[in-house]
Specification:
There is one protein chain. With 352 residues, the chain is α/β, with parallel strands linked by helices. It is built from 8 helices and 19 strands. It has helices at 22-28, 66-70, 173-180, 217-228, 250-259, 285-292, 308-320, 336-340; strands at residues 2-8, 12-17, 46-51, 54-55, 73-75, 80-81, 85-88, 103-114, 119-126, 137-141, 149-152, 162-167, 187-194, 207-212, 235-241, 263-269, 281-282, 301-305, 328-330. A 6-stranded antiparallel beta sheet has the order 11-10-13-8-9-12, with helices on one face. The protein has a 6-stranded parallel beta sheet with strand order 17-16-15-14-18-19, sandwiched between helices. It has a 5-stranded mixed beta sheet with strand order 2-1-7-3-5. A hairpin with a 3-residue loop joins strand 1 and strand 2. It is globular and about 70 Å long.
């Protein structure tokens, strides 16, 4: 059985299978709806049901309250059509967004190596190229683990292999399996592309990227994509790590900085003894950010990826230096623990 979902104000219809969520049907048709957690927890995907009937699914009572259900609101990530639907959604049109349909892919692991003591690099080959926009992520299906896991794509879109940086999460079943069990030659499934974290190229403004830990994945993809296209605007990458063992791909970025005069690379280490012999910046990423730009970020676009404390500190630093929300972009993942909690969330910045 299938149904038709009409999306207003686009006036576009998409097909939906029985048991398929409204969000999944729209994304697979190349229609982007605002969303974040995908588990009925955050409420980002809330839309108005104008006509038809839906099953609400696992929508949290915090994310979708009883009076909102009575008013015809639904969460697109959980709601499933029981008849033809007409929905109304707030869809932000962005000239730099590529509306790529969500697809399923089978892949073979062709290379794996430790990038740091806690981050394992995985390189996957698919039978057909998986289209994505630099900065987006995929949802990886891990054997024996309920639900897919989000991992940012670290390679440029024109490369043949899909590159992932997997940080081991303590007691994490999915990352534990990806670190300890997954071997070259084994096959995995993933769904891509996901997310709205991408470079606003049409702004034609200098760009700042700040990365910490495995948050380097998206900035690496974005920087490689920009330089590969011949971008001549100033690009700065600040990479924060605790020590040299956790600073990875720095040789790649150093070579890119030598090759491209418009690209500046600033590695910064926060946990080094005074006699370590490190000649680079010391301290935290937000401190290096402030020093690099003399605390004046006007006329830039900033893209932040990393642990929440780093991201929050960088946001505060950027705002103190006169860069505001419209020019600051972050990506937020909702973990399995988030999905298991019904607590409402109110992030300062929307998940992109």
């Amino acid at each position: 059985m299938s149904f038709q979902i009409m999306i207003e104000p686009l006036g576009q219809g998409v097909p939906a299978r029985d048991g398929q969520t409204v969000l999944d049907a729209c994304l697979r048709a190349g229609v982007w709806l605002p969303h974040a957690c995908g588990h009925g927890v955050c409420g980002t995907c809330k839309v108005q049901l104008l006509e038809g009937e839906c099953e609400h699914g696992d929508a949290s009572n915090f994310a979708l309250m009883d009076f909102e259900r009575d008013e015809g609101k639904i969460l697109a990530c959980c709601a499933m059509a029981q008849a033809d639907l007409v929905i109304e959604a707030e869809i932000d049109e962005d000239p730099d967004a590529q509306f790529l349909p969500l697809e399923d892919f089978d892949a073979e692991l062709v290379e794996a190596r430790m990038l740091t003591p806690t981050i394992r690099g995985l390189w996957l080959r698919t039978a057909r190229r998986a289209p994505f926009q630099a900065g987006q992520y995929l949802m990886l299906h891990v054997p024996g683990v309920d639900g897919a896991r989000a991992f940012s794509i670290a390679n440029a879109p024109d490369e043949d292999l899909i590159e992932l940086h997997v940080r081991r999460v303590p007691q994490g079943r999915a990352t534990g399996w990806l670190h300890d069990e997954l071997q070259v030659g084994q096959r995995l499934r993933f769904t891509a592309p996901n997310g709205r974290f991408f470079v606003r190229k049409s702004a034609a403004l200098p760009m700042i990227f700040v990365a910490g830990g495995s948050g380097l994945s998206s900035p690496k993809s974005m920087v490689l994509d920009l330089l590969g296209e011949g971008c001549t605007l100033p690009i700065t990458l600040i990479q924060g790590a605790r020590n040299l063992d956790e600073l990875y791909f720095h040789e790649l970025f150093e070579s890119l900085a030598e090759k491209h005069p418009n690209f500046s690379y600033v590695p910064v280490l926060s946990d080094l003894p005074p006699d370590a012999g490190w000649r680079g910046a010391r301290g935290f990423a937000h401190e290096a950010l402030k020093a690099q730009f003399a605390n004046d970020f006007r006329g830039h676009k900033a893209y932040l990826c990393g642990p929440p404390p780093m991201t929050e500190a960088c946001i505060a630093t950027l705002m103190q230096g006169r860069l505001f929300e419209r020019d600051i972009y972050t990506e937020k993942f909702f973990t399995a623990a988030d999905a298991a909690s019904a607590a409402p969330r109110s992030p300062l910045f929307k998940a992109l």
